[in-house]
Specification:
Blueprint (H helix, E strand, L loop, with lengths): L2 H21 L2 H28 L5
Length: 58
């Protein structure tokens, strides 16, 4: 997954959380927070992969 897709997942989660908050839907809020966490985890994994693939300066 690309960093852009991971960021999009975070934004989508933030929107779900906000919608759940406005409608007092606890399930939707939790789903949104979970989606944000997945996006952050995927973004971190992508960054780690880039560091591994990136050659060290010599």
């Amino acid at each position: 997954m690309s960093k852009a897709k991971a960021k999009a997942k975070q934004v989508k989660g933030k929107m779900k959380e906000a919608a759940g908050s406005m409608t007092d839907d606890k399930r939707l809020q939790a789903e949104g927070r979970g989606e944000q966490m997945m996006g952050k985890t995927q973004e971190t994994a992508e960054k780690a992969g880039e560091r591994i693939r990136k050659p060290q300066g010599r």
